[in-house]
Amino acid sequence: MVDVLSQNEIDALLAALSSGEMDAEELKKEETQKRIRNYDFKRAVRFSKDHLRSLTRIHENFARYLTTYFSAQLRTFVQINVVQVEQLPYDEFIRSIPKMTILNIFEADPLEGRMVLEVHPNVAYAMLDRMLGGQGNAPTKINALTDIENSIMERIFNRALDSLAEAWKTVLDINPRLEGLETNPQFMQIVSPNETIALISLSTKIGDTTGMINLCIPHVVIEPIMHRLSVHHWFVAQKKTRAPEEIDILNSRVSKAKLPIIAELGSSTITIREFLSLQPGDVITLNTRTDDGLHIRVGEKLKFIGSAGTIRDRMAVQIDEIVEGAEENDE
Q1: Which of 130, 206, 207, 230 is the most buried (most CB within 10 A)?
Q2: CB atoms within 10 A of CB 4
Q3: What's the predicted TM-score (pTM) here?
Q4: Cα separation, 185 vs 90, whole angstroms
Q5: What is the CA radius of gyration of the chain?
Q6: What is the pLDDT of residues 46-76, one digit of tens each?
Q7: CA distance 85 to 217
Q8: Arithmetic mean of pLDDT, 223-229
Q9: Signal peptide location in the record (predicted)?
Q10: Whether the Cβ atoms of residue 308 and residue 294 lie closer than 8 Å to each other
């Protein structure tokens, strides 16, 4: 953004040029010189601001889906929000997480490569405590997971990956599947240490327990679909065409839908007293003639004119005329 000088600053600059304190030629030289910017090759910039904004939008939906999922599973108050989306080297991510944590390693077809959903021990053990009937309190001491606890954790987060698939539907249909669960980050090497990753940090609150959930997506994994994370993909309206299979399924379901068909002989208006005094054999005069056609309605709309009759000793109605786009007025 270009800085705009105030009137006082402009007056001071002109006064300095007039008095000789500043040399106009020197200013021109400085302006024409090439500006050098430091570049750290260990922190290569692979994601543009546009990409990071798109990832933020996607994972804000992911956070909402996770909130709903965990609230239902744990039956307690759960709040999850996106705190930050940034890019950094994979090695820096590994050094920033606790030595004892919950690392869910997964793949998401058709993307090639592995990603990680890291869950802070406070959050993970609070979930485990709720699943086992506790109050959802974080432990004072973090121990290694038992086989039963490991199995419960895998089941919880394997289903949580369905929320990730739902959040990514606007970009790509993915099928995440949990490969394994690790607790020591030093034993997890999914990409080279200098590989750039997108780190999505989610603040998580379960009851009174707070912690972080971090989603690590290596650049090499989503590089083939980076163009789908652009503003053009998100905001340019595109006409979506249905596949032939979807059209066939839709036609099949519509053809099986049931609609009420009513054949009206006519109508009449009587008082409540007359209605209460009706006896077998009484005759109610309708507003139609015997030679008038029956009004046949589909749902609430008048569609056909027909005549009454019988077929094989059963009452029937024959369609004599099709009423195009007309509805009978209330009389």
Answers
A1: 206
A2: 6
A3: 0.58
A4: 11
A5: 35
A6: 788 888 888 999 999 999 999 999 988 888 8
A7: 11
A8: 85
A9: none
A10: yes
How far apart are the C-alpha atoms of 242 and 187, rounded to whole Å? 46
Q: Is 83 exposed, middle or buried (0-12, 13-18, 19+ CB in 10 A)?
A: middle
Peptide bond into 110 cis (omega under 30): yes
The reported pLDDT for the residue numbered 237 is 38
> pLDDT tens for residues 232-265?
555 553 445 556 777 888 888 888 888 888 888 8
Written as six digits, the tokens of 263 are: 């054949």
User: Looking at beta carbons, which pairs linking 69-77 to residues 24 or more positions away fall under 8 Å?
Assistant: 69/159, 69/160, 69/162, 69/163, 70/127, 70/160, 70/206, 73/131, 73/156, 73/159, 74/127, 74/130, 74/131, 74/136, 74/206, 75/130, 76/130, 76/136, 76/206, 76/207, 77/205, 77/206, 77/207
123 closest CA partner among 167, 166, 74: 74
Give the pLDDT confidence score for residue 328 in this predicted structure: 46
Integer Cα distance of 209 and 302 in angstroms: 62
Nearest partner of 58 among 171, 141, 135, 179, judged by Cα: 171
Whether residue 68 contacts residue 181, with contact meaning beta carbons closer than 8 Å, is answered with: no
Mind listing the pLDDT tens digit for each residue in 128-159? 888 888 877 766 666 777 888 888 888 888 88
List of residues 6+ apart from 145 with CB closer than 8 A: 153, 183
Non-local CB neighbours of 148 within 8 Å, separated by 6+ positions: none
